[in-house]
Amino acid sequence: MNYDVMMIGPIAHDHNIDYQGDEVFELGGAVYFSAAAANAANAKVYAAIKMAKQDESILETFQLPGSSISILPSSVTTLMRNQYFTADREKRRATSLAQSDQILFEEIPKVNTTLYHLAGLLYHDFSNDIIVKLAEKGLVSADIQGFLRHRNPLNGEMYFEDWEDKKKYFKYFNFLKTDAAEAEILTGTSDRKEAAAIMYHWGAKEIMISYNKEILVFDGSDFYTCPIKARNLSGRTGRGDTTFGAYIAKRVNGNSIKESLLFSTAMVSLKMETPGAFKGTSRDVENYIKDFYSEF
């Protein structure tokens, strides 16, 4: 079978605590949210998931058939703790109580796919050479989080640092996703359009920058934006992963930037109203567009 997208990254046990102190334990990780979104966008999706073999049962809620999933064995499964301090979930304290082993190129399943997406959570999830080797096989996209967010092994505290090798490897990314804060760390500017232009100059072909009010995309010629129109924010976790997963799914299947951005932003707006990965259908997203994005 030929796949449109292979999502590669660590799955995570997420321990989420909201601003009222309510706790929930659930499946998380960029690979989880992005795979669900791409699947709902009607792409053929394969997932290569780094995790401890003994935790395999947690994949029961993963929204792909078992034949489209490979487990890349790890000594531990990544464990994240997110404590939110506001109702909109914009302010949080995140700690990583465990990090899975690094994903090596040799582990990547040998299946035919158009695009390889590096859905990392923490620095060291991937080695730099995996970027180059995957680029020799197909298109490559990445969530920059996996190259900027570090974990203190002593206490699990997470912090962000600029990626010193960015100018060497950006040229291999056909699609690149950052949020507004990550874009500023990379480029030194809080102006999102300026940051996107800088990253394009460094070699990334198509850049998405997520923000709490809108999503921006730049392809070197034009800037595209689309507002987020969620009616509530109970499903804030996984916002960027959902948006980018749907976006790259649409792009590799021939949709324009404008079409892909509208679909992915509408999907994440709908997804943010319910905790967890997106569980709707492409038709649900299309109906949401009719109801809330008529001006587009």
Automatic annotation (TrEMBL):
<keyword id="KW-0418">Kinase</keyword>
<feature type="domain" description="Carbohydrate kinase PfkB">
    <location>
        <begin position="165"/>
        <end position="277"/>
    </location>
</feature>
<dbReference type="GO" id="GO:0016301">
    <property type="term" value="F:kinase activity"/>
</dbReference>
<protein>
    <submittedName>
        <fullName>Ribokinase</fullName>
    </submittedName>
</protein>
<dbReference type="Pfam" id="PF00294">
    <property type="entry name" value="PfkB"/>
</dbReference>
<dbReference type="InterPro" id="IPR029056">
    <property type="entry name" value="Ribokinase-like"/>
</dbReference>
<dbReference type="InterPro" id="IPR011611">
    <property type="entry name" value="PfkB_dom"/>
</dbReference>
<keyword id="KW-0808">Transferase</keyword>
